[in-house]
Amino acid sequence: MMKKKIFEKPIITKINAGVPDKFGMQNQIKAITHIDQVAIKDIIAEYGSPVFVISEQTMEETYETALQAFSTRYPKVQFAWSYKTNYLNAVCRKYHQLGSWAEVVSGFEYHKALSNGVEPNKIIFNGPDKSDEDLLLAIENKSLIHIDHFEELYTILKLANTTENKPKVAIRVNMDTGVYPMWDRFGFNYENGDAWNAINRLMLSKKVDFMGLHTHIGTYIMVGWAYGNAAKKLADLAVKIEKKFNHYIKYIDMGGGFASKNTLKGAFLPGTDTCPSFDDYAESITNALIGSDINPEHMPTLFLETGRALIDDAGYLLGSIIGNKRLTSGRASTILDIGVNILFTSFWYDHLLYPAEETSNYTEDTTVYGPLCMNIDVIRESLPFPNMKKGQHVVIKRIGAYNMTQWMQFITHRPAIVMIDKEGKTHLVRKRETNESIVNEELVPDYLQ
Amino acid sequence: MNTEKTDHKHWNSFLLSYSQVFFSNSKILGSLLLLVSFMDFWSGFFGVFSVLVSLVFARQLGFEKESTDKGVFTYNSLLTGLGIGLYFQPSFSLLLYTLVISLLVLFLSVGISRYMRNYGLPFLSIPFLLGMWMVDLSAHSFYTIGLSDRGIFLLNELFGIGGFSLIQFYDWLSKFPLLYSLEVYFLSLGAIFFQYQVLAGIIIAIGIIIHSRIAFLLSLLGFYAAWLFYYFMGASLYDLSYSYIGFNFILTAIALGGFFLIPNKYSMGWMLLILPIVVLTTMASMALFSHFGIGIYALPFNIVVLLFLYANKLRTKQNLGLKEVTVQHFSPEQNLYYSLEAEHRFMDLKYFPIRLPVQGEWSISQAHNGEYTHREKWKHAWDFVMLKSNGEQYQDLGERLTDYLCYNKSIVACYDGVVEEIANGIEDNKIGHQNLTNNWGNTIIIKHSEFLYSKYSHLKKNSFEVKKGDWIRKGQLIGKVGNSGRSPFPHLHFQLQKTPFIGSETINYPFSSYLTNKPESGNKLHIYDYPKLEDKLKITESNELLSSALKWDVGREMIFEIKSKGITKNYSWTIESDLYKNTYIHCKESHSFAYFYNDGALIYFKNFIGDKSSALYHFFLAFYKIHHSFYVNTVLNDEIALHLSRDHYKNGFLQDFIAPFYIYRRIKYKMKYLSIDDELSPQLIKLKSSIKHYKFDKLTHTDTYHIQIHTKGYIEFNNIEKDFYAIQNN
């Protein structure tokens, strides 16, 4: 029996044809009906809508690609999972299982890493804000502390007097890599001599184990060569340290900032075509290190703290159509149950939105709104999208990074997060919030009781 | 102190001059032989005199020190002196005569030894033979020297020693063939030292047993093989018992059965054929030499041993049966145990420590004797590819070269060398296509030695980072993986060869160390091994802390505080090396030496000489084999040569007797890498070595050493069972 066709309201639009390709004018958006062989409608039926989905399979594949890109070019490579990118315990533990260390930027993240079973000496403690208590704990735990500014440097030297353990430190260095804006707010500058100054103070104090050099040149860097420039400058510092102090640093940490395949807002071409691959980054970085004057017998381990490029592709956000509305200008719009409060990255990227089931061939430029009763809640200003009915499902791809940490509880509960394991089984890794989970933290003064 | 030391050395050389006669450097045997030589006082006296004369001259004239120290130049003089002392009436003129002859024999020893070295042959007792013939031919011209009648009339002698009853006993003995033959055996043994007495033979036999069970077995084998030949051929047994010639059989058997050749069933079997030859030579030379009025002494022994050794060297197939002893340990047991060990151990010594030609984890898509192209003359080659965890070599569809993980990845030199040849300019094939015209594609050949070249093929066009004639270091980037030549998909073809040409025949040559990883069993450390098909492998990285602990450079001093059985004492060991570049740890206190081999990454002990109750011996066992990389739960296995075990004398006495035929004792060594506190900057590494003793495959006991490496590479190790604790102080 033939399936009944879905009724579509007839509209009249002017022909807005681009250059036809050999398949003609087809601009149908291919539906994403399954993630790792699990049907999207089943996921939503079980866990509600909206819902975040993380594919363990994709996590592993991306990690392997990244590791392979570096380890086939450089003998000693170590990834450290950037907690702020996604610090869901399940996600972190998966990366630790794959061999990643932990890179944290706060006491909260530090303790989270500990509770995820990371050995303390495999935690890299970054960031401008580390309390004295956090620092002391990190020193005693023999974690690696990356110093961000002189005040922190002095604090560590002071704390070193109070403990048996020699702090294991590195400094964060910023430099002109040829891409702008320059991230000179973090770490010590290379060009103005602050970095060398900090190194000298640390080395001459003899109170710390000077372990390595760290940089993090920016975020969403779309060119590989910038990393090559950064690696060269760090290698120069390493050679200077070797010459002056006869000391071999243990590692060079190139940080993160690798782009995923998302398209930045305002970009002319899609990210899938313009963003460098892991191989491009790896080629620049490793060529710079291998070609440097560092003694080949004492090549430092190469640390990488890439977060976004590892997890972005593994994350999906599933939602449903709440309603459609034709705006006064005649433009089509649709309202999703996904708002900017849970899709923080919609401020940065033109996210790709896919129907979760087959739709008609016809697409129309559509504005996609979220469910919040706020004017800013726009997921996409405009994208070609087919007409979908209330209750039908949509998929947003490449949202694994930052959304599950920077999201806001606003107006409603934050959704559940589900992980699909390699066997295609789903696991709830964060429950949908309830009123209790939010209200529990609240206190009411007696007089309002 | 210094004179004491030199005195000690002279005394050693003196005793070794005696034991060398039996190819031994056992001082116990030497002392017993000295004692035996004095059973005829004057014979013994002149023997001592000859040795002293030759030793003094050898030292003063500055002949090769090591040979002098070991008594190699002086044992021939000793034999000559013994003979003179027996044959002639003692007198001052005889003393002068002996001095002259001893000097002559010394010069002959030095000269002939050098000459024979050209052929890789020993000089045995040729100097003595020549010396004795000089004596035989010249003595009657000197009027002051008179013949002695001692030793000529046996019964007189016996009467002198034991009266009439001894003669009766002697006659009674002769009636039992076995006892009779034993008697002749002992007489023959004694005859080697010109002591024609059963007692002398018995003492010498005891000395030989103490020195070497196998040598004793061989002495019996040689003697009885000859005896049976006499018996079956109807020769006169009386000749054998009466003359001095029996020792020729004994010495031949020891020399060929276990000293110059590795004692095994083949060497022993050959004795049954060789001894008749010696008998034949003896008969013939006796008949011939009687015309000249000179004795044959050890002539048959010299002729047959040298002839057989030389013939053996000329065999073109050396792999079967008889094996020459390459490094002489002056004991058949040690020669045997070393050779057994060498089969799986010292083979590594002849290899350069070559590394994998790639970085990161690679996989072998075709190994030795591969199913595609690694066949016949080119069977010892490897194809390297990179795999994803799903086992595929490519991402996406695998239609483009760049889809292949290994494409354009770095290739590094496997060892130091010079770029011998580069073929460049061949385009990469499309996936699935092969270029059979330029079979090897872009290729680089590196020369490591006159007979070792490494070849890397199918490289990417113009990816070479070096040029012909460049000196390159191990691990240096040389080019990139491509898909040129007979290569349907990108891979690196790597092989080692003896000749410098593209297309040369491959040779079977191992990688010094690499790590394989299997999901079910984890990391496995391979030492001097050959990667197999589908192995996933990567290079081993040196561990900083372990490396500093194992930095045993010559000249370094290591001080250990040893706590054992309630006593604490500091020992200082130094790393030294000898003329032949053998490196060893020397403990002055215990006069012990632990010889080790170090290829830069792997250290293993080869030998231990000295006091087996010393701390150095514990160290030798604990660190018998160790690699300077650290991967948790990897193990190194090895076997310890039996004679190096602590109680070999007690436990291995019986084993020695049958060792040429069957080994029932085994000592297995295992080093396990237990834990590391911090991979980035390790402060504490824990290792465990165990030495397991097996008898008939049954574990009899285990020695366990717990080892810790602390900051700066200081070593701590202990054996709790033996109440032994050691910790390094510097």
How would you explain this protein's 3D organization?
The complex is a heterodimer of chains A (449) and B (730). Chain A is an alpha/beta fold and 449 residues long. Chain A folds into two domains: 34-54 and 313-434, Beta Barrel (Lyase, Ornithine Decarboxylase, Chain A, domain 1); 87-306, TIM Barrel, CATH 3.20.20. Chain A is built from 13 helices and 20 strands. In chain A, strands 3, 13, 14, 15, 16, 17, 18, 19 and 20 form a nine-stranded mixed beta sheet that branches. In chain A, α5 (132-140) packs across α6. Chain A is globular. The mean pLDDT of chain A is 92. Chain B is of the alpha+beta class and 730 residues long. Chain B has three domains: 1-153, Orthogonal Bundle (Ammonium transporter fold), CATH 1.10.3430; 362-538, Glucose Permease (Domain IIA); 544-728. Chain B is built from 20 helices and 24 strands. Chain B has a twelve-stranded antiparallel beta sheet with strand order 18-17-16-15-14-13-24-23-22-21-20-19. A ten-stranded antiparallel beta sheet of chain B has the order 7-4-5-6-9-2-1-12-10-11, with no helix packed on it. In chain B, α14 (265-289) packs across α15. In chain B, 43% of the residues are buried. The chains are: A alpha/beta (449), B alpha+beta (730). Chains A and B meet through α2 of A and loops of B.
